[in-house]
Amino acid sequence: MTGLVGRGVARVDGRAKVTGAARYAADHEIPGMLHGHLVLSTVARGEITELDTSAALALPGVVAVLTHRDLPPLRVPSFPYLKGFVPMQDTRVHHSGQPVAHVVAETPEQAREAANLVRVRYRAERPTAHLAHALDEAFLPPLFRDEPNEFVRGDAGAALEAAAVRVEQDYSSPMMHHNPIEPHSSTAVWDGNSLTLYESAQGIVFTRRVVSIAFDLPEANIRIISPYLGGGFGAKGPTWSHTLLNAAVAREVGRPVRVTLTRAQMYTMNGHRAEYRRNLRLGATREGRLTAIVDTSTAQLTRTDHGVYNTSESTLRLYDCPNVHVRQLGVRLDLPSSSYMRSPETTAHFGLETALDELAHELGVDPVELRIRNHASADPHSGEPYSSKHLLDCYRIAARAFGWARRDPRPGSMRDGNVRVGWGMATETHTFSAIQSNVELTVDVDGRATLRAATQEIGTGTYTVITQVAADELGMPLEHVTTLLGDTAYPDAALSAASATVASVIGPVSQAAQDARKAVIALAVADPRSPLHGVPAEDVVAERGYLFARGDRGRRDSYRGALARHGRPVIVTGSRLNSSGHSYGAVFVEVRFDPRLATLRVSRVVTAYDPGRVLNHRTAHGQVIGGVTWGIGFALMEHTMVDPHTARVVNPNLSTYLVPVSADTPSVESFFVDRPDKGSTALGARGFGETPGTGVPAAIGNAIFHATGRRLRDVPFTRDKLL
Amino acid sequence: MKDFAYVAAPDVATAVRAAADAPGARFLAGGTNLVDLMRQHVERPDTVVDISRLPLTSVEETKSGGLRIGALMRNSDLAAHPLVRTRYPMLTQALLAGASAQLRNMATVGGNLLQRTRCPYFYDRATPCHKREPGTGCAAVGGFNRSHAILGTSASCVATHPSDMCVALAALDAVVEVEDVRGTRRIPLADLHRLPGDTPHLETTLAPDELITSVELPAPAAAPSRYRKVRDRASFAFALVSVAAALEVTDGTVAAVRLALGGVAPKPWRAVEAERVLTGAPATEESFRAAADAELAPAVTLDGNEFKVELARRTIVATLRDLAREGSRA
Amino acid sequence: MRVTIEVNGERRTADDVWPGESLLYVLRERLGLPGAKNACEQGECGSCTVYLDDTPVCACLVAAGQAEGRSVRTVEGLAGGDGLDPVQEAFVATGAVQCGFCTPGLIVAAHELVHRDPGATDAEIREALAGNLCRCTGYEKILDAVRLAAAKKAGERA
């Protein structure tokens, strides 16, 4: 170990990214490639009655226009294909913006114009577009991924009835879209019965499975390549229909085809955060101990699937409350399928952390103190102890750095001239998954190492952290280790979602690197030509690519020397398992509100986290800034508008679907407890990416209440709600 | 994007001749609006006359003490021009409040005058829109209309004019010079844009082949002026409400005022009624409120944009108050 | 039509260009320069920012014919040879890069800002870069990168 782990080393892929050399899904040059463009339905519910492709086909450069009449049957894949149906298999329209034809042409512009010339007639039925229009049809959806939608602990109804203090409120949030800056792109290249896809995929192994099911092809015949992703935030975790349709079309036309979705198409093709309402009832003692939580949420579902993604995990597990009743209801609407979107638990957590602030105000208890009084020192639902949890430290560290002790709790009491200052806080938490992952590590004859794994770099720093851990365990300089990701030709590994990558991949990487080091040391000490010949293997240390006898550094060999003499590479694998869990933190926010024009600014954010061991402080801090910015977007502006009559997305672009720009974001301070979690095989690191930001919407709303005395329970908190 | 004939015009005469010869032709300058609309299939011209190389990029002082600005001057260059910065700071502020640095580097004065609405239904060809396709209907009236207009609307159209620059030009009494094969003419800015009425697709009083060649600003007033834009994020967003104002106060009385509004109307909205109420009135908060109320009295709101009345009122009052304070300090 | 553009200091010609193609398309698909990214095609995100005659523009909104005879500089051409431009170095050094997709456009915009106004205040930097949306980094490190590159630039001048 050379102390690389934990250090904020610069990204190993930084150079490729700042020079434009990194190749994203739409950047790969494929000889003979055609360009596809999807034609999407303009009605939300009904039947296609007529589909005229003649004008499109007549356009120069157009090779084919395929519809449900032309495509072979494709099987509907299981998770993580979320749609519940494959489009272009029949005439039924399930939502506006559903593919009804796929145009293929020599250039993208020709394909786009031809798509515009495809004439489609529908027999349209009246769609239902909003939760409010169908709340009376809410139902408890069946199991999704083996998980129920109702959880009962104790007797929440009775406990609520008996509670000394109660808070009951409704909280809501609109549909939101991931909007990774990179649009989805898929390039299908067939060679006989084998398919290669250049894909913007957060989980290439999962994409391979989905494609295998849809086309009834062995997985061995399918290769997915995705070396770089331009963000995903969940949008590229599931495999979506454009990938399947484009591959089918490429097979039909007998040439490689690339389809890159337009920004507008991304609003109906790739999932979203569902519109969501929630009724929360909290019961507590006068001292502020929670005695009951009754949590009834309603999320938007479709008529073709019933996935609930905005789960009430934090109600169930964050606080020590003996009586909890969670029901995650759904309403079927004529909209595209929703899906996971960065930190999906934020949606529900916003309500809980706001309700706690309301309870704190009601009781006259400090909001931090209220959370401390309800801190769970064992998992409240399972009763099992935590292998490690330092949330109380997070409250303390962040509160002190923020200066929380100086807060006057009376709403409207803190002013700066005309500007009202508000301070609010919330707990941050999110689950992370651990997914079985395998890596292969080769130490080549030149003494350098290459690590291969079919996980991907989504932007969080996977290339860097893997390289860092491997170099550290091997005792090599960083630049002697190359990490190759994003190709299913490598061993199966985790998806870049559910905060799973570090938790899933680092254990196997560390294991493989240790084994490789031991194997090379064993070669050296057994080799009469090595200066280390005869030294007990356990007395050999590796540093900066060299191998030393402990206590006699004059006896020195190197990876390069040992491997050169060995004459062939050393290849090892790693597959150490890990378990899922939670990461924790606290966020404190200052807002400045000018009542004259109802101008609100988030002026200060201080955070502290317990993600177990921090593998790279720089990338970890990067996740915090990014997550907080997402929290600001969620709280203040993000909102997909759906027309109530047509169920079409009204703002499918980046000028009316607003995401924060630079000037909306303050600088973000972050602190880390940085103590290894003994329960994690990833060198004590837990999954972390989705924890930052989960508490931010509530913390902002709580700060607005503190500044103004007005309690907002429906995001986004736009100016019209603050006037 | 539909195939089209592309004419790169080396001079104004060629440009207007090409436009006259090809009905439905569009002039292409900075491209920030037209290229976008063509790619969205909202604009489908058969001929595009590229005017981006015409030598209309100068700023000259006029005999009457004003400025003549070439129609192809880029927004960023105009904002940074010393004569504009010092004599018409409101215009610089308005230009810099618009779009992003990249777009300001592309967008021209003439193009900005003809910028088309960002009503989302105008952009969505699957929905009815009288402006895009006369006679089809208006999806915004019963749909999502939080960003829509409250003044000057009709049953046919509630879209707003999106330009920031034009609001300042309206307040400054700019005059637009246009040319076609028949000759040149001058149009006061107030008469350039039309209200929608029953014909929202007719947005200006220009003939289709008339080319804007320059914009003339009258001599600047000495009064303090300001452009204030209120939007949903800190930068790079269209106005919910914007105000361009200049206020001259003498002995506590409003001697002269110019006031124009953006984000609330289908055209850059000169607040004539407010100016009438203010002129000669005491420069007090009460007068400012009365003026705002008078201007906004005819406002017609929809489900989603009711807040704009109050927001416009407050923005007018706050801007005038700041200018009165600034004037009294000077 | 034939379009001749000076790209990163080299005269490049593309034949059979359709006038409706964007400069972005010409660069990416015809001239083998995929550095500038296609992300919104509406001038709303800045990912396709390139220099057109020394001015940063959204290449997605420049019609191919408009680029005829002009000079274009992309992220691939900012540094000479194998080196990195100080702005590129600063982006790596400060951790201003995450997924990297908005990065090429941001680097061109930042490059212009640092050269035009190395003394820009934080507020000016934020406003100057408002046309470049980033969904991963949250901007703070990008500001650090601009400050670092500007400081280096100022040092060179002194």
From TrEMBL, chain A:
It comes from the Bacteria. InterPro entries: Ald_Oxase/Xan_DH_a/b (IPR000674), Ald_Oxase/Xan_DH_a/b_sf (IPR036856), Ald_Oxase/xanthine_DH-like (IPR016208), AldOxase/xan_DH_MoCoBD1 (IPR008274), AldOxase/xan_DH_MoCoBD2 (IPR046867), AldOxase/xan_DH_Mopterin-bd_sf (IPR037165). Keywords: Molybdenum, Oxidoreductase. Residues 19-126 form the Aldehyde oxidase/xanthine dehydrogenase a/b hammerhead domain. The keyword Oxidoreductase applies. It holds the Pfam family MoCoBD_2. This is Xanthine dehydrogenase family protein molybdopterin-binding subunit.
UniProtKB/TrEMBL annotation, chain B:
It holds the Pfam family CO_deh_flav_C. Residues 1-222 form the FAD-binding PCMH-type domain. It comes from the Bacteria. InterPro entries: CO_DH_flav_C, CO_DH_flav_C_dom_sf, Diverse_Substr_Oxidored, FAD-bd_PCMH, FAD-bd_PCMH-like_sf, FAD-bd_PCMH_sub1, FAD-bd_PCMH_sub2, Mopterin_DH_FAD-bd. Keywords: Oxidoreductase. SUPFAM superfamilies: CO dehydrogenase flavoprotein C-terminal domain-like, FAD-binding/transporter-associated domain-like. Coiled coil: none annotated. This is Xanthine dehydrogenase family protein subunit M.
TrEMBL record, chain C:
InterPro entries: 2Fe-2S-bd (IPR002888), 2Fe-2S-bd_dom_sf (IPR036884), 2Fe-2S_ferredoxin-like_sf (IPR036010), 2Fe-2S_ferredoxin-type (IPR001041), 2Fe2S_fd_BS (IPR006058), Beta-grasp_dom_sf (IPR012675), Diverse_Oxidoreductases (IPR051452). Residues 1-78 form the 2Fe-2S ferredoxin-type domain. Transmembrane segments: none annotated. The keyword Oxidoreductase applies. Pfam families: Fer2, Fer2_2. Keywords: 2Fe-2S, Iron, Iron-sulfur, Metal-binding, Oxidoreductase. This is (2Fe-2S)-binding protein.
